């Protein structure tokens, strides 16, 4: 359990959640970075935390979104949007209407474009400051949040940001708790209609699963008996391989015998 941060009573926090994609099976799940944002919001003492999702409501996405409800929530706000719609106008209108003090979201989505630009576009439209790579929220006092930003190589930077603000989290944020099955099934969705903006550019794109390309093998030219023996007896390493050319089995055996004689193994 994460320690509770020093917070101003009545702090309103909205966490933007999305439907994730399992990296191996491809099944719908709660997005890892969004779940970390929910876990971060759960560490705030005396804060009113609200979950917000904009997208389609079907069987697979509903099952994935219930993973967030299983983290200790009874309700999730859902802005219904058709497939391929631009969710930016709907989210901006909803956040402008509720005016939360802090908005938490993941760095990028696991489905769709996954460009990571949505938090920046929201901050630009709402006129709010944005902090990326958040590791922790230390305190919120007098409308100013003290944040701990994650930097490369495990470094941290302390920032002070005036609220309202948008923050994004990545793998440096606290790991999410396991989703409880009972609360996840009992949780409810509060569906509302928002403005629909069709993304014509995204509709014109053709998306297909990426296929891993075969890696080229590095060809080693055998110049001496020692080199041929090392290439034949070298342990294969993951991620790369070597092919020994221009060497027959007889030449390989002769090279091994020659090398063993040089090392005084055979007398």
UniProtKB/TrEMBL annotation:
A matching Pfam family: ETF
Keyword Transport in annotation: yes
SMART domains assigned to the protein according to its UniProt record, in alphabetical order: ETF
Keywords in alphabetical order: Electron transport, Transport
Iron is among the record's keywords: no
Matching InterPro entries: ETF_a/b_N (IPR014730), ETF_b (IPR012255), Rossmann-like_a/b/a_fold (IPR014729)
Domain called Electron transfer flavoprotein alpha/beta-subunit N-terminal: residue spans: 19-201
Family note: Belongs to the ETF beta-subunit/FixA family.
Listed name of the protein: Electron transfer flavoprotein subunit beta
Organism field: Chromohalobacter beijerinckii
Species lineage: Bacteria, Pseudomonadati, Pseudomonadota, Gammaproteobacteria, Oceanospirillales
């Amino acid at each position: 359990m994460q320690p509770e941060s020093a917070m101003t009573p009545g702090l309103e926090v909205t966490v933007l959640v999305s439907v994730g994609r399992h990296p191996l099976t491809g099944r719908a799940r709660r997005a890892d970075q969004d779940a970390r944002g929910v876990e971060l919001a759960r560490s705030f003492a005396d804060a009113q935390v609200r979950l917000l999702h904009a997208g389609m409501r079907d069987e697979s996405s509903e099952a994935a979104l219930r993973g967030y409800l299983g983290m200790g929530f009874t309700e999730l706000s859902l802005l219904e949007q058709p497939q391929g719609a631009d969710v930016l106008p709907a989210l901006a209108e909803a956040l402008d209407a509720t005016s939360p003090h802090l908005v938490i979201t993941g760095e990028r989505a696991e489905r769709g474009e996954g460009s990571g630009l949505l938090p920046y576009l929201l901050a630009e439209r709402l006129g709010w400051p944005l902090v990326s790579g958040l590791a922790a929220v230390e305190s919120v006092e007098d409308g100013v949040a003290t944040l701990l930003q994650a930097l490369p190589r495990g470094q941290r930077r302390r920032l002070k940001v005036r609220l309202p603000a948008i923050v994004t989290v990545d793998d440096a944020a606290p790991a999410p708790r396991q989703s409880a099955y009972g609360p996840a099934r009992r949780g409810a969705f509060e569906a509302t209609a928002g403005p629909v903006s069709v993304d014509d550019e995204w509709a014109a794109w053709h998306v297909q699963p990426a296929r891993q390309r075969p890696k080229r093998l590095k060809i080693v030219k055998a110049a001496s008996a020692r080199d041929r023996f090392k290439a034949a007896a070298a342990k294969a390493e993951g991620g790369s391989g070597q092919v020994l050319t221009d060497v027959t089995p007889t030449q390989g055996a002769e090279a091994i015998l020659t090398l063993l004689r040089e090392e005084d193994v055979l007398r």
